Amino acid sequence: MVSGAQQEGACFPAPDAPIGRFLSVCGVQAHVHEQGAADAPPVLLLHSASANLREFAFSLAPRIAAFARSVSVDRPGLGFSGRPRGAERLGVQAAFAAAVLERTVRAPAVIVGHSFGGAVALRLALERPELVRALVLFAPASRPWPGRTAWYNRLAARPLIGPAFAQAVRVVGPMQADGALANTFRPQPAPQTYGAELGAALLFRPHSFRANARDLAFLNAELQAQAPRYDQIRAPVRVLFGDSDHVVTYKRHGLALAQAVRDGRAHILPGVGHMPHRAAPEAALEMIRTAVET
Asked: How far is CA 290 from CA 67, 119, 135, 136, 192, in A?
C-alpha cells in the first residue's frame, strides 16, 4: 500500500501522492482525509464527478475543522479509492460512503455533496437515514434531465471500446484540462492554481476516466429512479446554487429538490456558476456550521 502521509511543507502534493489514509470498505480500499478533533461533530464531504477529495481537503475542510471533524473521501474509482463492482449505481456509491462513515465516526454526520456528490448524499439519506444528521448540497444533481451525457463519456463507458478509448485519453486529456476547468467555474474565472491543487491529472488515468464516464452515463437513469423518493428524506436538506449554473440548473435540481423533501431550503446566488462553494465560501461554511449546530 502506498503511504498516505503528506509531505511536510507541501502546499499541494503531486497528483501521484495520496494525502490521507486507506480503509478497507466494500471489498476495496477507500482513500480518506480527516481534519479536526476526533470527538467533534462529523462532516462527510463528497466531491463531484471528474474530481477527487482534494476539492474539499484544501478549501473548505480546513475551515470546517475549526468546529467539526471533516472526512473527505475519494469516491469509488476516483482519486486513490478502489472501485467496487456496480459502482455506477448510486446505491453502491451510497453504501461505500456509509462504510466510510462507519469506519471513521460514531455519530450521525452532516453530509456535504457537490454536484454528483449531491446525488450520492441524497441516496445515502434514503438508504441509511440513521447515519445522516443533515444534508448540505452545493449545485447537486438531483433530478433526471433531457438529453444525454457528453459523447466521450458515453464512448468511454461502453464495455468493449471503452477501455481502449480511455487509454487514448491519457495522452489528449491533460491538454484539455484547462478548458474543462474554465467551463466548470464559468462565469467565475477558474483559479490559476486550481488544476494543481485538485491534482486534475488523476482523472486522465484510464481506470479513473472510465469510472467517471460510467458514473455519468448511468446518472440520469439513476436519478429517474431516485427522485420520486425524496419525500421520504427526513433529514434537513440545505441547497446552495448559482443562478448562472450551466452544468445543472438551479430550478430543476435546486428549487424542485427543496420543495420535494420534508425540510428543504434553497439559497440561490445571483451570477454564480457550478462552483457556489468556491464563489461564496462564507455562505457555504455558514450553511455547514448551522447544520452541525442545529
From this structure: 11, 21, 11, 10, 31
